[in-house]
Design a protein that fits this description.
single chain; alpha+beta; 2 domains; three-stranded antiparallel sheet; 4 helices; 11 strands; about 15% helix
Length: about 210
């Protein structure tokens, strides 16, 4: 469907425009602002928590089906938002994380990338939807900070407590700082020190209770 010169993925029963975004958000910012200015916009970001590889030969016969060792998590959204860290601040925009299982075809036809030794990637289909996580306001991103307001932390300690790689921890803190969720308070050696910030953008909301 076309809105203001942009093609959107669709509109739901509530009249809300929605987009399914699987890649970087850097080139999406301008489109998101235009679509959100016309009304509410929901950006659905699939988080693949389980992927099954269905392997076929060149004639279309299935050879095997196996589960991939690579899995996604809700932290992936912050790794993508590093390219557009202020996207969650767009008025009328909501990001919805869809935790899904998918199946992906791999075809031994000799036409794929040399990195995959000629194996092509075929269709991908949805197997299951486990949960949805809605991120409507900057305060919703407080769920990504595993520290209290009185605690200082670095990207290293953040990564350990959140159980993510240090590289992803750095990206996450960059995005959270842009959203006014955390702030830099100094340095510890060569590492920046952060603290949870309840600032102008978040003081109207309370931190969501921890899940039991």
């Amino acid at each position: 469907m076309e809105f203001a010169g942009f093609v959107a993925d669709g509109i739901n029963a509530q009249g809300e425009c929605f987009e399914i975004q699987t890649g970087h958000f850097g080139s999406f910012m301008n489109k998101a602002k235009k679509l959100a200015s016309l009304g509410s916009l929901k950006v659905v970001y699939p988080v693949v928590v389980a992927k099954y590889l269905e392997v076929f030969d060149a004639e279309g016969r299935q050879l095997c089906r196996k589960k991939s060792t690579r899995v996604g998590s809700i932290w992936d959204i912050l790794g993508e938002l590093v390219y557009a860290p202020e996207l969650p601040l767009v008025q009328g925009l909501e990001i919805e994380l869809a935790l899904v299982d998918v199946a992906e075809q791999r075809i031994h036809d000799g036409k794929g990338s040399w990195r995959r030794k000629g194996v092509s990637i075929g269709d991908r289909r949805l197997l299951d939807l486990h949960d949805k996580i809605c991120l409507k306001t900057p305060a919703d991103y407080l769920r990504f900070v595993p520290f209290s307001k009185s605690e200082d932390f670095t990207s290293e300690t953040f990564g350990k407590k959140a159980r993510i790689r240090v590289g992803l921890a750095r990206k996450s803190l960059y995005v959270l700082a842009k959203l006014g969720i955390v702030e830099k308070t100094g340095k510890k050696g060569n590492m920046l020190v952060y603290r949870l910030l309840i600032g102008p953008r978040t003081r109207k909301w309370k931190k969501p209770p921890a899940k039991k």
